[in-house]
Amino acid sequence: MSEATTQTIWLTQDAYDKLQHELEQLSGPGRADVTAKIAAARDEGDLRENGGYHAAREEQGKQEARIRQLKDMLRRAEVGEATAVADEVAPGTRVTIAFDGDESDTDTFLLGSREVLGADDLDTNVYSPQSPLGSAILGKKKGDLATYEAPNGSKINVTVVKVEPYGG
């Protein structure tokens, strides 16, 4: 398994409960609804030219993939509360970095996942702790330097300017 698939996912109790509820909904009533749609479309006859059947099967595939994703996330979840004071970069913190030490060229983002943080409608950038930038700054404190590799292979140097807990 790759490192990204075996790494712990840090969740608040609220985020864990939200994901657990979604899994229960998809696994129970959601599966029943899709199965009923497939059965109804199958009863219409020739499956080769049955758009409703193919759409229901595609929906079923997406739903099953989401169920697998949720099960994996919940299996790897470590439940706890974010500390009121953040002195180092960790999942669930809001981080400001400066590129190449230039304090006028900064980026502020959340470290984590939109769904894990319950921030689906948030306008702020969110970076995964497993991303090149996220893994480079994980555990760093204000003033620390980090280097990560960009998709084009170049090395990018950043300085952690600010770390604060995410308030949701």
TrEMBL record:
<dbReference type="InterPro" id="IPR036953">
    <property type="entry name" value="GreA/GreB_C_sf"/>
</dbReference>
<keyword id="KW-0238">DNA-binding</keyword>
<keyword id="KW-0804">Transcription</keyword>
<dbReference type="Pfam" id="PF03449">
    <property type="entry name" value="GreA_GreB_N"/>
</dbReference>
<protein>
    <recommendedName>
        <fullName>Transcription elongation factor GreA</fullName>
    </recommendedName>
</protein>
<dbReference type="InterPro" id="IPR028624">
    <property type="entry name" value="Tscrpt_elong_fac_GreA/B"/>
</dbReference>
<dbReference type="GO" id="GO:0032784">
    <property type="term" value="P:regulation of DNA-templated transcription elongation"/>
</dbReference>
<dbReference type="InterPro" id="IPR022691">
    <property type="entry name" value="Tscrpt_elong_fac_GreA/B_N"/>
</dbReference>
<comment type="similarity">
    <text>Belongs to the GreA/GreB family.</text>
</comment>
<comment type="function">
    <text>Necessary for efficient RNA polymerase transcription elongation past template-encoded arresting sites. The arresting sites in DNA have the property of trapping a certain fraction of elongating RNA polymerases that pass through, resulting in locked ternary complexes. Cleavage of the nascent transcript by cleavage factors such as GreA or GreB allows the resumption of elongation from the new 3'terminus. GreA releases sequences of 2 to 3 nucleotides.</text>
</comment>
<feature type="domain" description="Transcription elongation factor GreA/GreB N-terminal">
    <location>
        <begin position="9"/>
        <end position="79"/>
    </location>
</feature>
<dbReference type="GO" id="GO:0003746">
    <property type="term" value="F:translation elongation factor activity"/>
</dbReference>
<dbReference type="InterPro" id="IPR001437">
    <property type="entry name" value="Tscrpt_elong_fac_GreA/B_C"/>
</dbReference>
<keyword id="KW-0805">Transcription regulation</keyword>
<dbReference type="InterPro" id="IPR006359">
    <property type="entry name" value="Tscrpt_elong_fac_GreA"/>
</dbReference>
<dbReference type="InterPro" id="IPR023459">
    <property type="entry name" value="Tscrpt_elong_fac_GreA/B_fam"/>
</dbReference>
<dbReference type="Pfam" id="PF01272">
    <property type="entry name" value="GreA_GreB"/>
</dbReference>
<keyword id="KW-0648">Protein biosynthesis</keyword>
<keyword id="KW-0251">Elongation factor</keyword>
<feature type="region of interest" description="Disordered">
    <location>
        <begin position="42"/>
        <end position="64"/>
    </location>
</feature>
<dbReference type="GO" id="GO:0006354">
    <property type="term" value="P:DNA-templated transcription elongation"/>
</dbReference>
<dbReference type="InterPro" id="IPR018151">
    <property type="entry name" value="TF_GreA/GreB_CS"/>
</dbReference>
<dbReference type="GO" id="GO:0070063">
    <property type="term" value="F:RNA polymerase binding"/>
</dbReference>
<feature type="domain" description="Transcription elongation factor GreA/GreB C-terminal">
    <location>
        <begin position="86"/>
        <end position="164"/>
    </location>
</feature>
<dbReference type="GO" id="GO:0003677">
    <property type="term" value="F:DNA binding"/>
</dbReference>
<dbReference type="InterPro" id="IPR036805">
    <property type="entry name" value="Tscrpt_elong_fac_GreA/B_N_sf"/>
</dbReference>
